[in-house]
Specification:
CATH topology of the largest domain: TIM Barrel
CATH superfamily of the largest domain: Glycoside hydrolase, family 3, N-terminal domain
Strand order of the largest sheet: 11-28-27-26-12-13
Shape: globular
Number of strands: 48
InterPro entries: Actin-crosslinking (IPR008999), BXL (IPR044993), CBM6 (IPR005084), Cellulose-bd_IV (IPR006584), Fn3-like (IPR026891), Galactose-bd-like_sf (IPR008979), GH (IPR017853), Glyco_hydro_3_C (IPR002772)
Keywords: Hydrolase, Signal
Pfam families: CBM_6, Fn3-like, Glyco_hydro_3, Glyco_hydro_3_C
Family: Belongs to the glycosyl hydrolase 3 family.
Helix content: 10-25%
CATH architecture of the largest domain: Alpha-Beta Barrel
Distance between the termini: 57 Å
Largest sheet: 6 strands, mixed
Strand content: 25-35%
GO molecular function: alpha-L-arabinofuranosidase activity; beta-glucosidase activity; carbohydrate binding; xylan 1,4-beta-xylosidase activity
Number of domains: 5
Radius of gyration: 30 Å
């Protein structure tokens, strides 16, 4: 019962059950289904009602598909609520926002739709991914996120807390990474936080292979029995490991039982949770399950198609507009639609397959007619010549071969072995070469007939031929409709080799070699020369010169350079695509850039030069239609950025792994620079005025009511996303420059007004007070800011909260937990023990520094005598030989003590290091601690 694939138990009438069905923005991995915009696009709608309806549609299709495919499961692993702390994260498209409150509200809406509104039975049972502080793919199963208590409580936990407290999610999936040196799959926070938020039974499903990682890659435990027992005791209920083979997990559990590491009650607890979920899904009383009757008629419905288009429209963000948009349709003007994504819609790792789809090119042809739409993809047309002078040839039968879109499964390589291999000969085949950045190239056979459009609404590929790929037999074929697969087989790199190049296949790590029966991968490659027949920017410039307006569509393929297992190294637009918008603009100044992408780009020069820029996440099956309607004004854009767009890589922390957003100045909450586009930004074809912000405080209810009026002062009906932020005017600790407290998306006709009222619990003004170990709202002055983005503030009001100021840290009474610092440099948080607790670690080379504000060392006695000599006791550990030191100073530089920490024999072997302090200071001071050498510090205490 504790494995992902639980077997049937006939004697109890239990059917087989599988945890886990991907459903991030549609039913995934099970064939064709309605494909909605990526999660980050749903976050960009800032519309809880819309996202709830998308969740309802996805949950309904899960139920419908289960009727003909028993592999479709009702325990859905969605949504991903990891915060978009760093836009270089390879899975940026899976999250909703960098802000915890926006993420929590959108996640609650989506899970509410997935769950359904029946008081007893659930449509599906959503599991939130990935607990906790998971925002990097680089070495994701061995890296540790250093998360200080304030960031943990104010940031990472808040995203998960909303859906759990709302009762719309059944549980969580722990992430691969470690937090403060301890793997998430044995985190005490599962018990101390997650399960404390609700009385509902929650289910914790491990990530795939993670239980084995505890021993194999993380080396956190010596044996799998110890690791499995620790995960079970920590709260993991369902183990996802070794695919469908449950025997190894079961053997480990038996071994743990035999060794006394767990007992039957531990297993009973997990099984009870899993069976409770199955009860909620109606498995044991289907005659009472209100969702049991959902069938094929509820799949791919007109309503779902309309919702896919509506959500794609609401996700479009207008970044800049100098009057170019909306485009006017006078019946004559032509438009050039160019770029690598102009006639393509991209899927991602967690997409379903398209049943139907419309690219921007198709949508514009439908709106304007084929004679008024000029198209150029912008790929380079090249030919490859082998060292012997022969040309790379794609067999004619493969060039025009179509592949059924419905066969797409991201878990499998897309290459086919039933097509003939690519060969060499006297006649070259023109290939479309696209440089996706970072050296990653794709090559695609070019069809001779390129003018015909794909069938309207069809599921087939776009015009342009099939991608060169490498299948299991090692031969190169034109046999893939698109890049895909867990290991992408359709990407290559060019390595210089004298005056030629070696073509390296990324998926296998081998080189392309010419053999008698075709091209294949080998340890030694054949040198090729690359002949450019036509540059992509030349084709784009020609199309731009012939058109009245140019739309350049750039972006990413979600399987290349930024995806699961691969972070980005830069925010820059790939050079190939950068050349395309520059060529289009040079030929025609009426050029707009559409970024159809899973993440932000740094495009300051495009912002400076182009009259209009838009961004949309990959918009699902209706992405092209949605963009066309926005471009021509049928829809006024009202999407808002769910994360900061930075002007350059230099604006980001040096390390992707710097999870301390306070010290790093990361996200809009703490960023101290000027962003390219701020959090919450998005323009409209209408204009809106804000007036009359009033605040009313209800001390009895501990709430604050903020009210103001918004008016559509433009000429068109449009949505506006009103945003309410808070900030503390003179905080005693580092606080956000401003923080989202509430928002609402509303629609107004021209000239109409609406009064917007938000009721806020006063605790949203607070923070986690590490000095006293609780959430606190300090007395003082606060600003309440209403506006159209985090920087476009239209109204400000102040609020004064009375009360006693917080007391200083009572260090003589309580001592200091090292992790409860107010500021740090060059330290990391680590596990104090393998079970619970945190410590601070420093490295061998760079001194670590900790600051503790307002420490109360007591007062002089009535005779004016100081508190006198004392000792400071450090709980410290040091695995390395030799000694390290801990130095204590006051904020004014006064030296208090230096303690030498000897080797203790291991990282968890703490010892009490006592050092005399000749004279403790009196009164309140900041305490500075310097750690020199590799050591762990868990706690400080003082004694007389």
């Amino acid at each position: 019962m504790l494995h992902q694939f639980a077997p049937a138990v006939p004697r109890l009438g239990l059917a087989a059950f599988r945890t886990g069905q991907e459903a991030l923005h549609g039913v995934a991995w099970m064939g064709p289904a309605t494909v909605f915009p990526q999660a980050v696009g749903l976050g960009a709608t800032w519309n809880e009602d819309l996202v709830r309806r998308v969740g309802e549609a996805v949950g309904t299709e899960v139920r419908a598909m289960r009727k003909w495919n028993e592999r479709v499961g009702l325990n859905v692993w969605a949504p991903t609520v990891n915060l978009l702390r760093d836009p270089r994260w390879g899975r940026n498209e899976e999250g909703y926002s960098e802000d915890p409150r926006l993420t929590a509200s959108i996640a609650t809406a989506y899970t509410r739709g997935l769950r359904g509104d029946h008081p007893t039975y659930w449509r599906t049972a959503p599991v939130l991914k990935h607990w906790l502080a998971h925002n990097n793919e680089t070495e994701r199963d061995t890296t540790s996120s250093s998360v200080r208590p304030r960031v943990l409580r104010e940031y990472d936990l808040e995203a998960f807390r909303g859906p759990i407290e709302a009762g719309t999610a059944i549980g969580v999936m722990p992430a691969y990474n470690l937090v403060n040196g301890r793997p998430n799959h044995v985190s005490p926070l599962l018990r101390e936080q997650l399960r404390a938020w609700t009385d509902q039974e929650l289910v914790v499903c491990s990530d795939a292979g993670a239980p084995s990682n505890l021993v194999n890659s993380e080396h956190y435990y010596d044996t799998h029995e110890e690791a499995t027992a620790a995960a079970l005791r920590a709260g993991v209920d369902s183990f996802t490991d070794h695919d469908q083979d449950s025997s190894q997990i079961i053997a480990r559990l038996h071994g743990a039982l035999d060794r006394g590491l767990i007992d039957e009650s531990d297993i009973d607890t997990a099984v009870r949770r899993l069976l409770t979920m199955r009860f909620l899904l109606g498995e044991f009383d289907p005659d009472q399950d209100p969702y049991a009757g959902i069938g094929e008629e509820s799949f791919d419905t007109p309503g779902h198609r309309a919702l896919a288009q509506e959500s794609a429209e609401q996700a479009v963000v207008l970044l800049k507009n100098d009057g170019l948009l909306p485009l006017a349709d006078d019946g004559e003007n032509t438009v050039a639609v160019v770029g690598l994504l102009a006639d393509d819609l991209k899927l991602d790792w967690y997409s379903g397959s398209f049943i139907r789809r419309t690219t921007l090119r198709e949508a514009l042809v439908e709106r304007l007619g084929a004679d008024r739409v000029i198209y150029a993809e912008g790929s380079d047309t090249v030919r490859l010549r082998a060292a012997d002078g022969s040309w790379v040839q794609v067999p004619e039968s493969a060039v025009a071969e179509q592949q059924d879109e419905g066969s797409f499964n991201p878990a499998n390589a897309t290459g086919r072995t039933d097509l003939p291999p690519v060969t060499t000969g006297d006649t070259p085949t023109d290939l479309a070469l696209i440089d996706w950045g970072g050296g990653a190239l794709t090559l695609r056979a070019i069809e001779k007939e390129r003018e015909a459009l794909p069938q309207k609404g069809g599921g087939g590929r776009r015009v342009g031929g099939l991608y060169l790929t490498v299948a299991g037999d090692g031969y190169v074929r034109a046999a893939a409709d698109r890049p895909g697969g867990w290991i992408v087989q359709e990407t290559f790199t060019l390595e210089s080799h004298g005056e030629s190049h070696l073509l390296k296949h990324t998926g296998s790590g081998q080189y392309i070699s010419v053999a008698a029966d075709g091209l294949k991968v080998a340890a030694q490659g054949t040198p090729f020369s690359v002949e450019v027949v036509r540059r992509g920017e030349d084709a784009v410039a020609e199309a731009a010169r012939r058109a009245g307006t140019v739309i350049v569509v750039a972006g990413n393929d979600a399987h290349i350079n930024g995806r699961e297992t691969e972070d980005r190294t830069t925010l820059a637009l790939p050079p190939h695509q950068d050349r395309l918008w520059r060529a289009a603009h040079a030929a025609n100044p009426r050029t707009a850039l559409v970024l159809s992408a899973a993440y932000p780009y740094a495009v300051p020069e495009a912002d400076d030069r182009l009259p209009a820029l838009l961004w949309t996440a990959h918009g699902g099956q209706a992405g092209g239609t949605a963009l066309a309607r926005v471009l021509y004004g049928a829809v006024s854009p009202a999407g808002r950025l769910p994360q900061t767009w930075y002007a350059s890589d230099a604006d980001l922390p040096n390390q992707l792994l710097d999870y301390d957003i306070i010290s790093a100045g990361a996200t809009y909450l703490y960023f101290r620079g000027t962003p390219l586009y701020p959090f919450g930004h998005g323009l409209s074809y209408a204009s809106f005025s804000y007036r009359d912000l009033t605040l009313t405080q209800d001390p009895d209810a501990a709430t604050l009511i903020a009210s103001f009026t918004i008016t559509n002062t433009g000429d068109v009906a449009a949505d506006e996303v009103v945003q309410l932020y808070t900030r503390e005017s003179d905080p005693r600790v580092t606080r956000p420059g401003r923080q989202l407290a509430a928002y609402r998306r509303l629609r107004l006709d021209p000239g109409l007004s609406e009064t917007v009222t938000f009721t806020l619990p006063l605790h949203v003004l607070g923070f986690w007070d590490v000095a006293h170990g609780h959430w606190t709202v300090d007395p003082g002055t606060y600003e309440i800011l209403a506006g159209a983005s985090s920087t476009d503030i239209r109204l400000t009001a102040t609020l004064k909260l009375d009360g006693e100021p917080p007391a200083p840290r009572p260090v003589l009474v309580r001592g200091l937990e090292a992790a409860d610092f107010d500021a740090q440099t060059a330290t990391t948080l680590v596990d104090r023990t393998k079970v619970r607790g945190d410590a601070v670690a420093s490295g061998a080379d760079t001194p670590g520094r900790l600051v503790f504000r307002t420490c109360d060392f007591g007062a002089r006695d009535t005779a004016g005598t100081s508190t006198g000599s004392a000792s400071v006791i450090l709980d410290a550990a040091r695995a390395e030989p030799g000694e390290a030191t801990v130095e204590l100073h006051l904020g004014d530089g006064t030296h208090l003590a230096t303690a030498r920490v000897p080797s203790t024999g291991g990282p968890y072997a703490y010892t009490a290091v006592r050092v005399a302090v000749p004279e403790l200071p009196d009164g309140v001071h900041d305490l500075h601690i310097t750690l020199r050498g590799a050591l762990r510090l868990a706690r400080l205490s003082f004694s007389g």
